[in-house]
Amino acid sequence: MTQAFLDRAEEMVESTSARVTRPRVGVLAVLLAARRALTHHEVERQVNRTLRIDRVTIYRVLEWLTVRGLAHRVPGSDRVWRFNAAEQKHTQHHAHFKCNHCGEIICLDKVAARRGIPLPSGYRSQEIELTVKGLCAGCVPARAAQRRPRRYAQHRH
What we know:
Strand order of the largest sheet: 1-3-2
Order of helices and strands: HHEHHEEEEEH
CATH superfamily of the largest domain: Winged helix-like DNA-binding domain superfamily/Winged helix DNA-binding domain
Structural class: alpha+beta
Number of domains: 2
Number of strands: 6
CATH class of the largest domain: Mainly Alpha
Radius of gyration: 20 Å
Number of helices: 5
CATH architecture of the largest domain: Orthogonal Bundle
CATH topology of the largest domain: Arc Repressor Mutant, subunit A
């Protein structure tokens, strides 16, 4: 993690008018540096390379960042939450793309999940999750190469 990520994280935390703490800045810097959304354990491993922050504090910081719109959580197919930095303010209900090969999860900024989904009488939605699954730009060539038919030596009878 570079100083640039730490500086950007500090600016983002300051923008909330809340107290700037090492755990908040450290966790957000890890999310900013990550190419994909990370699980709590992945965040913990990355943060603890430079800072010593206990597991519970990391959970609390991830929740704090999420509530303030600096990060958001995305459900993984393994039912484990993943977190990534929200560099721009996203609407609460927006879509994600998840690569089925490498696991990268990115925000689809131009795709908003519809808020007005018709529900039965008396029901009220609190959160909408829309995830498009497929192959990212980096994995499409790799998967295509795996699927190419192999040329077999001529078979003799």
